[in-house]
């Protein structure tokens, strides 16, 4: 069990290091960095490399933003095989809708409960 925690920490940390390098070295904005990491996750899933990474690192690969790209492509591919082009379009939203909905709902509740500084 300790070994799985270790690898989750290492892989998740490496993904974060890549994001930090994009900020510091390439001077990318947060939006560009997040978008790039989502695209990297999508490309890795398109080549079938992200699922083995999830099997190896667990939460170290599912928690970072790259997992969102993985989810988009994974949903598009699985639904595309079943329903064709329409499945590609709907599959992306079907897989990620619960996470996006939760982020919106909890963000709204947080905004109601706490006063932002500024």
Automatic annotation (TrEMBL):
UniProt keyword annotation of Aminoacyl-tRNA synthetase present: no
Transmembrane segments: 6-26, 33-50, 95-114
InterPro entries: Spore_V_AE, SpoVA
Pfam annotation, one family: SpoVAC_SpoVAEB
Protein keywords: Membrane, Transmembrane, Transmembrane helix
Designated name of the protein: Stage V sporulation protein AE
Organism: Sutcliffiella cohnii
């Amino acid at each position: 069990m300790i070994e799985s925690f270790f690898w989750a920490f290492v892989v998740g940390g490496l993904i974060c290091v890549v994001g930090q390098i994009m900020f510091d070295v390439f001077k990318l904005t947060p939006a560009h960095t997040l978008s790039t990491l989502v695209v990297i996750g999508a490309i890795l899933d398109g080549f079938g490399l992200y699922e083995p990474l999830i099997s190896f690192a667990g939460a170290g690969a599912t928690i970072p933003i790259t997992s969102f790209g993985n989810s988009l492509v994974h949903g598009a591919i699985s639904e595309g095989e079943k329903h064709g082009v329409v499945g590609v379009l709907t599959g992306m939203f079907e897989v990620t809708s619960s996470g996006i909905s939760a982020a919106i709902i909890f963000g709204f509740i947080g905004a109601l409960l706490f006063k932002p500084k500024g």
